[in-house]
Amino acid sequence: MRRAFAAALAALSTVMVLTACSPEYTPGPTGTVTDRTAAYFKSGGWRYRLTVTTTDGRRHDFRVTRHDYRTCFHASAYPTCTHR
Question: Secondary structure of the chain: what % helix, strand, coil (to 5)?
Fold first, then answer.
């Protein structure tokens, strides 16, 4: 019984660690990527941001994951650039 409990606890802690390391941010609006910024914060690590210009000319700046930052380049269409 103790081994089963220990195995379940280990599996649960592994899932919690993996989900904590992979943040999900709300997706930005559909548009063209006009700017990309990456900044390092001493206590928080890297933070990635994209700026998208929509068809009506409005600019939206929002935070993205590292994967989205690495796949979306200047002048690419967001959010289709995240699905490569």
Answer: 35, 35, 30
Helix, strand, or coil (residue 7)? helix
Choose among 21, 23, 16: nearest CA to 64. 23
- Which of 60, 8, 57, 58 lies closest to 79, judged by CA? 60
Q: Are 48 and 38 in contact (CB under 8 A)?
A: yes
pLDDT digits (tens, 9 = 90+) for 27-63: 899 999 999 999 998 888 999 999 999 999 999 999 9
Decide: helix, strand or coil at residue 10. helix
